[in-house]
Amino acid sequence: MSTREEIVQQADLLGYRGEKREEYLKQEFKVLAERAVIARKEKLEAERAATIELEKMRLETWMKMLQAKIQAGIVKEETVGIASRFNDTSAKHPKLPHLQDEKDDLDIWLTIFERFAESNSWSRDKWSSSLCALLTGRALDCYGRLSSEQAQDYDKVKQALMKRYDLTKDGYRRKFRSCKPAEGESPDMFIVRIVTYLDSWIELSRTEKSYEKLKDLIVREQFMDACPEDLATSLREKDLPRLE
Predict the structure, then answer these.
(1) What does each C-alpha distance from 57 to 21, 54, 74, 123, 217 come to in angstroms?
(2) pTM score > 0.90 for this model?
(3) CB 75 within 8 A of CB 94
(4) Model pLDDT for residues 196-228, shown as the tens digit of each residue
(5) What's the rounded Cα separation, in Å, for the pair 235 and 240?
């Protein structure tokens, strides 16, 4: 990849002067910046995938160890972190922790639920009823407002919960704009969280991952953040792909 100095040298070698030189440098610097962003994103995605895979392996190993301890009667209840909330020794598998409104991050909690269900070969048509038994507070209230048909469909229940907890396009946009490092969170972990919010925002807004489409998304959101609230509300309701 060329550096800025090399691009300047190339412009000199080509004999560009004045506006032509400025235009050449502007275009090449833009390409350089785009490549740097792509390279950084690819690196973060690779690190994120590796982290997720490592955490998955750790979770699976931990669950197997806990299950073995419970079956052997060595422990009835773990006392460290989230393990303290797995407390059923009579069931074939340890119970998952209940969702706690003020403590748990819903999307992470649902990911753990899904991994646990898959690792224990639960039939997907039973996921919704199993999930219901673990809900409390807002989540349980949301579940109770669904129709009988919707309540039996895990994907529809999940969609309703995500909306109730503001894990929507606008919700992830706000998280991306306002997130700050959590206590004890390393810089790398914080960056991964920022990228996760951004990726979720882009995905839920159905935005193509190209420079022009991403530019439209950023400009549109910046405009709506700066314009009067009633106009912004109207524009968000119309969900226009472009403002022009």
Answers:
(1) 54, 5, 23, 22, 36
(2) no
(3) no
(4) 888 888 888 888 878 888 888 788 777 777 777
(5) 7
Provide the residue type at 137 as one letter. G
Q: Look up residue 222 and give its two tokens.
A: 């910046």
Half-sphere exposure of residue 93: CA atoms within 13 angstroms, side-chain side: 15
Biggest alpha carbon–alpha carbon distance for the chain: 81
Closest CA to 158 of 201, 186, 128: 128
- Amino acid identity, residue 1? M
- Nearest to 96, CA basis, from 74, 128, 65, 63: 63
The C-alpha atoms of residue 128 and residue 146 are separated, in whole angstroms, by 12
Distances (CA, A) of 244 to 217, 219, 239: 12, 11, 13
Residue 165: CB atoms within 10 Å: 19
Which DSSP letter does residue 124 get?
G
Is residue 138 within 8 A of residue 165, CB to CB? The reply is yes
Short-list 169, 25, 175, CA closest to 105: 175
CB atoms near residue 167 (< 10 Å): 19
How far apart, in Å, do the first and last CA atoms of the chain sit?
Answer: 35
- State which amino acid sits at residue 18: G
Amino acid type, 13: L
Contact, 232 vs 243, CB < 8 A? no
pLDDT at 186 over 50: yes
